[in-house]
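All the exercises in this workshop are built on plain-text protein records. A record pairs a protein's sequence with a compact description of its fold. The structure tokens are whole numbers drawn from a learned vocabulary of backbone shapes. Once this layout is familiar, the rest of the handout is easier to follow. An example says more than a description, so a record of this kind follows.
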Amino acid sequence: MKLVPRKYQLDLALIAQERNTIVYLETGSGKTFIAVLLIRQMYKELSKSLYDGGKRAVFLVNTVPLVFQQANFIAEQTSFSVGKLVGKSSIERRQINWQCFFDRYNVIVGTPQTLLGLLEVNVINMNMINLIVFDECHHATKHHPYSRIMDIVKNMEKSTRPRILGLTACIFKGECKPSKVLPKLADLEEKLSSTIAIPEYLTEINKGKIPPTEYVICYNVVDSTSCDHMEALSDCSFLLKGLDEMHTNTLKSKAQREQQSASVQLVLSAFDEAIQTINTFGLRIFPVVTDGILKCIRRELIVTVKRKGEDDCQLSKCESWYSPVIRILESKLAVQINESHPLYTCAHFAKLLDVLRSCNDQDTGIIFVDRRITAFIMHELLVRISKTDSSLAHLNVGCVIGRSSIRSLLLGQPQMSRHEQEEVMNRFRSHKYNVLVATNVLEEGVDVSECNVVIRFDRVNHFSSYLQSRGRARADDSSYVLMVDQDGVDKFLEEYNAWHAGPIVSSKKIAKKAVALEACKFLHEIGEITDNLEPNRGKYRQLIDKSQFKQFPIKFPDSLSSPFGDAEDLYLNVIMINVQNSVVECIGTVDYNSVFGLVCKVQLPQIEKFNLQTSHGDVIFSLTPQSVPLHCSHEDLELMSKFEEYLFTTVTPCSGITDLIFDPANSIAQYMIVPLHRKKNSRLAYFIYKFSIDGIITDETFIPCMIKNPRKYWMDASNLVNDNNRNDDTSCDDILIVKDYGHWVNNVVDVYALQEICHDLSPLSRFPTDKRLTFKKYYKRKYYINIENSNQSLLRIKILHQFPISLVHEHNMIPAITGTESKKKTSGSVYLVPELCLIHPLPASLWVVSQYLPLVLYKIEKNCLSYEMLHYIRCTSLLEKLLESQTKKQLHYQSDNILDRITQSLTLPIAEDQCNFDRIKYIGKVFIKFILAVNLYQMYPDDNSYSLTMKRRQHSCDQQLYTLAADTKIPSYIISKPFNQLKCWVPPGFAFSAHRQDNSAGNVDKAEKTIIESITNNFLSVKSIADCIPAIVGALLFQNNESEGVNFLKWLGIAFSQVSVANNCSFDIQSDKVTDMITIHDSESWIWRLHEFETYLGYKFNNFNYLIMAFTHSSSEYGNSFNYEKLEFVGDSIINYLVIKYLFHATNQDIMRSKFFYNIAISNEVYGLLSYVHNFHKLFYQTPFVKDMITDFEKKTGDMLESGSVPNNDNKHEWIYAVYCKSVNDECKIPKELADVFESLAAAIYFDSDQNLTIVWDVYSKLATPFLDKLLSDDSIISREFRHED
């Protein structure tokens, strides 16, 4: 079954696509599916052969069972071929051609040790891999294979390294003090060269999940050392230790002494295991563990006999050591232990039995233990007890343990192979076992069916183990039981509270009360509530400043809200919808001649191939207006209206709001949706469907038979399989089938796409799921239906589901579906008997496309709204005179070029659309600052730069922009809500019922009234409205025509009338002072250098005083009379606008990365360095103080050059880049005066060229674009910035 990704999975996969990521999610949250989404996204490289430049994805897991589990999951969820890479395979097939193995499979799932072995002997190359997924990546510590693989990755060039994705439910392994958490997180990130990512909205993960109820069960530990049997074990252990110390030193060689000591230590370990096990279960298992000790002793004696070089004397000594031990143990085995003995069953195990008795037959559970021997003995005991104790007869117990170590094998402890583990797990999944006893082998990764009881038999020692085992309790109303000895319960609860940051209580109700009490204590301490636990109204009158939020009615397009009249011409607009990469539906044949039409009173703006990325695939739709009007009678409109009601209530239900009713007369959406069919031999002409019952096109429309009693009017499907159609391959194309049996509610039935008429099957064929029955007998037994025609062919069909569509973010994580995957989707078809089916009048293709229709109509409405918004701006702005000379067609043509950008400028980020105004508003903001700077400079010639800056800030603040926008209709056009066809979209022809719309009605439900207001009104913040203004300006600037943006700002009231100053400079009246300054300052030399600089720039000044002013510092002799400060005020905004405009068009990065480029490119440091490398500082008319700062800077850069920390400035832009990085780290301070003169020169050229931005950019592009291109191409600085942000 194909899984549909949740929002948090898409977002995390998007982050993983951008950078190396560690995904931290709890057990059962779908971490593996995030890896699948990332693998799908790399399908282009993965689908190629290695010899054609293809790459491979590697998914690493820690155990062999997980290899097979994850490989099967990836194969199910993708169309890729998946190979399994395990150690056993590499041993058995040493001569395998690993290059062919990696070329054959697109995705490799394996253990890290196997991959590491292939990499270390250079059998495969890391360059063949473009993605490595580390499952349970918290194991990447010290010398773990994960760490060693990452060491190989880090030795590669950065550009060739594979993408890294780590998956874990616990960030670190084992116990960790709070003070060590952050260092451990940093170590893991450094080890995997990744950053940890968690979703921003954790509630989405747990949506629909109820966490398990947790219980702590205490048991008393009884001192068993005084028991005869336990004393015997202790005595034997003590005796062996004494004999070992006494006789080992008598051996001749060191090797003999070491071998003998190891043998005795092994037997002593068996005694320790036995004592610990008896303390866990009681004396009831004394015979079992004692027998195990005797077997261990005899095994060691046999080993001693077989050991080469041993003499009879040494063997005799060994036997003499063990003989008294064996006699003691055998004597105790001969004594029968009575079940009434107080230590026969320990309290620990007895408490476990009590818990199991409280479970019923339907419960499934896992008991986690720490030791393999504990799991083995517990399994044997529970199996034995379930046969004798009726209260535990419902238990069917299985056991899963890992593979034992060599020491465990020598002790005779049990182990399980991979196949044995898998067999037990399959029996548990199929409910043949309802209880599993397991070690920590089941804590991580292994796919376990949902169980509702998880018991931690041994004490949980650290948080990671608690988190992993608790995550196995996934079923609803599940329980998680922690067993703790009474003496250690206080310490355990202290640790438990630290994990939960709160005390443990006996029930959820008490927990809520405890949290509420703590909250009240805190609120009282800070003065938010009174002693009577009432709000302290005197401290805060309002928690939210409602003045910052305003309500505006949502505008609906006029073109779609004009009511229909009788005998009026209407216009048909054809909607073509093409679904690609669908993850939901796939039918064999689609007749794309069937489309939808939108009928309204006007021709709508044409939409050519608009792309939408949805939760169920990519949608490309277009809207084509038909020039020939429709002539519809009143009866035609009635039929169209009935079809529209049927479409949005039965085919694609669009409203979860009970208050909506179908009421075309009062609906705000006055347009109709009709089914269309393309005329033969015509590319543009369509007609509305007109079918009769027999399928012949007549004057009778097919709409009545769809809406009336279907069982009377719909065609019998048996007509499809008559003899005339037996050889007709096209007879099943695009046909929709419904069952003619079962219960129908309001004509809402399951629908199926007909895929094939199976002439080789009949009602006498065997039923697929029960071979004992034929189709005829199956229907007779289940539905009491007699099939009359036993020779009719069967229909192979595929069920079609109804599904609400939602938009996803800009980067869609749903991959293209290949042909192989498409075939997988069509598998598993169902067969129906034609005699028991009807043919739906609607084509199958139109039914599938109709599921996407609400979203497409929503986008068409917003497109029409943007068109009207643009028309509103232009027709009410100062462009009105220009538009009077244009025809409506010309206006439509110009509008069509920027319609998408206008929609983008009106879309808030909270609308969760594919695009919003976040990026486009940035260029609009700098343009507004530029226009205001120019206007203020012209209007206030006597003000200084500080005064002008304050005025500009006042004119461009959010409150001012909001005030100007609120006086227009712009707020009503803003898109602020995410699309949801069930909650916030009103289908055409639907309206709120009359009694709800009547505000005076006394029975209006307040909650439903709020819902209505949320649909019909925008509740917008002041900042959101203010941000839309620069966004609209940015949209209007795309045609490289700043006049559009200027005219909009004038209409809004931001920009002022232009005052040309090209020939009336404010400092020309002081030309005598300019002349004096030139004379004093070695006029010939300086003037000559300024003219040379003109040649260097490639621009000749018409008014040379502008150039002089641009290079005059305020601290100079004539700084009080004229200087560059006001030019710098204007030039700063000019250069910022031109640079950001260049970056805006040069890069198509996301908003965060674009802002990062902007902040660097328009910084004073970059402007100062550009000024320096182009020798602006050598023309500076300045004081010695400023000159000294520049000299110090030159000296500092000279020192860096000598030390080799920056390159030679022969390559100017490499040098700028290197020095800028030093300045960011505070290693080098760049004088701001260098940036000021760079900006003032831009204003000087702007005013001298009669305010021509093109000329300014022609000059400055030569100075700045090489560095900007260098900035855009450097990925390392971007990576550093993103690591800093995270």
Residues 135 and 167 are 5 Å apart (CA to CA). The chain is about 45% helix and 15% strand.
